[in-house]
Amino acid sequence: GVAVTILPLADFVTHVEGDKVEVMVMVPPGRGPHDYEPTPNQMTQLSKADIYVKVGSGVEFELVWLDNLIAQNPEMPVVDCSRGIELIDDDPHIWNSPLNAITMVHNIIEGLASVDPDNTDTYAKNGAAYVDELRALHSEIKQMFEGADSRYFLVYHPSFAYFADEYDLIQLAIEEEGKATTPQTLQRTIDTARKHGLRYVFVEPQFATAEAEGIAETLGAEVVAIDPLPRIYIPAMRSTAEAIARELKQE
Fold first, then answer.
1. How many CB atoms lie within 10 A of CB 120?
2. What's the CA gap between 5 and 16, in Å, rounded?
3. What CA–CA distance (Å, rounded) separates 197 from 8?
4. Starting at the edge strand that comes first in sequence, how are the strands of the sheet with 2-4 ordered?
5. What is the average pLDDT across 104-124?
6. Model pLDDT for residues 22-55, shown as the tens digit of each residue
7. Burial readout 17-29 (b: 16 or more C-beta within 10 A, e: otherwise)
8. What pLDDT does residue 251 have?
9. Which of 21, 78, 98, 213 has a Cα at 20 to 30 A from 181?
């Protein structure tokens, strides 16, 4: 079987390997990779994995746990999905951009083929078909943002810097990556959101929303959920883009 850190990687692996594969996800649905601790049961399962697919971009779970995970199964090869991706300000959320997802899928194709050379052609063929879907998604999202009145959107947790970079948008975040927000920073964010007439506060289901709700109230904005750790990547990215596009087109 294949072990991966987060849900989107499980989707990438399933598309490359085909449905016959068993994928074990270390950070389960509804949990964030910032503070999750693997269970003893997961550690036991990991000792049987053939390969580990890591994000490789400095995700907190991997920084804290990866050495322990590999110690369970020292022979297990590790695929680094971040190879060939340029990090933005040490932000680990590289998967939240369809073009980065394409690079990650290529890294997975290569990694799986190196462990299982007999199926190289299958991996290449499945992977190429999925990359075509990701390219189509990228074009579709680009079109959604054409002719937008504004480029700003407000999120609770800063998970969408790569998405913003890809589509020439500006992500405002209530929380700073890994740090408590200072009242000054928060006030600055609220002022900018107000200046651009933002109507939505986008929250991720893995993070507490009480503060986001308070800020939405201050701004007279609506809280909208978008998922930065989807189990099924393409439809989730599409609905995230549609939600953000509503903010950008201020009829």
1. 14
2. 17
3. 32
4. 23-25, 2-4, 51-54, 78-80
5. 96
6. 899 999 998 989 889 999 999 999 999 999 999 9
7. beeeeebebbbee
8. 59
9. 98
